[in-house]
Amino acid sequence: MMGGLRRMKPGQQGLAGAAGGMMLAVLGTMPSAARNGPPPKLFQRGEWTAFCDNSGGCGLANAAHRPSLRERAVRTGSASTASSGTASSWVCLWLGSTSGADASLSLLPEDEPAPITGTHRRELFIQPVKGLSEEPVGRAMVARHDGLERYTLGAENLPSLTEALRTADVALLRETSDGPVVARIPLDGFRATLGYAQAFRTDRRPLPVVTPKPFRHAGQGTAAETEQLRREHCSEGHHRAPPIARYALAPGRQLLVMHCRLSGYNGLALALTAGRDRKARPLILTSVVDHEGVGPDFSNLLVQPELGLIEEYHKTRGAGDCGKRRRWAWNGRRFELHSEEIMPACFGAGHFQWLRMHASAPPTPTGQQRPPC
Fold this sequence. Notes:
By secondary structure, the protein is α+β, with helices and mostly antiparallel strands.
């Protein structure tokens, strides 16, 4: 099924070298000494973001410059309809690994409660167009010059659709083959991000099987051994040390958590571990996005001892629709990365739209696997 999606030759991978400067706009300044493996495969150009996870696959989403909730509200007004056109749908094209056949297309037209995919069929037609000329018809738009073929929503059409999008200026979304346009999908940057994604796709890699082991809450209290780290990381406004939540991870091993200050939109917690020597040590955990690791300050930390998981949810803004989200599982010896997603644009995205940077396999065959976006 993926035969129509060409993999770039080594000599054509110039986009990879240009990606460094583009990634900084998404991720902030990256440390020069990365200890957690190669940089994340994340690249922005125009309105599109290319991303790759640890399965060997890569995807493209129009998440680089999505309109905010306020901008979307303005666009629904009748006065702005003629100038702004129809709203732009959320699109995520997953290419999968080069040896796999797990390509998929996820669409989320305006006012839809959930994304529409090839497995959740609805007769929508996608029309890549060159040199588009439009005229308003109510809140929809009609193309004067159609140009290219229409494609129904289905995985079997993805290779030819992807090639058509590569050379188009815009894609139109119709509910019927010849009906009015219900959404307009700009393709600025699509060609560059497609090339980047194809350059970094690899053979399928098995996802690590992560089996969380529950641990237990062991009460609250204070501990003198944490005082120095508390003074380094917690707000000076605390006249008294905040309570410490203790969790028994294993015999002689504890997780210590204190929620101690606010930073922007995030409540920061200090996480430490203590062994039989009762010495507190900073908890630093692996991440594919933040190479130097995460911790001991964690944003909006959620500890779920009964599930064997801890979760960080770092919000870029108060609405919590963009930022980073990752989970680590206690495997009986250490915390290992369970999953990680990122959303670089703030536009009201639901969590199912966040870009998957790392995934782990369910411990049982019946477990659910989160889709890439």
